[in-house]
Amino acid sequence: MKAQELGRLGEQTAARALQKMGCRLLAMNYRTRFGEIDLIVQDGDTTVFVEVKTRKDASFAEAAEAVTPAKQERLRAAAQQWLAEKGESPARFDVVEVYTKDRTIRHIRDAFT
Fold this sequence. Notes:
Helix content: 25-40%
Number of domains: 1
Family: Belongs to the UPF0102 family.
Strand order of the largest sheet: 1-2-3-4-5
Radius of gyration: 13 Å
Organism: Candidatus Ventrousia excrementavium
Number of helices: 2
GO molecular function, one term: nucleic acid binding
CATH class: Alpha Beta
CATH topology: Trna Endonuclease, Chain: A, domain 1
Structural class: alpha+beta
CATH architecture: 3-Layer(aba) Sandwich
Protein name: UPF0102 protein IAB67_05160
Strand content: 35-45%
Shape: globular
């Protein structure tokens, strides 16, 4: 499976999992000049910006470790644009790790600020 296909599969899997947890999907692959936010969901009154990391397994490193400080900064800037366009609300940043080999998902709430 190509990396792009793996990423798309992970995003779809994460979106379904978050919806099952009661979140409402607002956007997938929201693009800005700062970068892309994989998923944006509503959890109660909170807008949640979600970075999805998909790996075959965790043998190399946990997927969340790939969300570097530079990536976090780009996500914050993109989130600010969303909030400016759609209206301010409480917000948080989550990371969802999807491991395809054993079909597990790890949801990290408030992964960074």
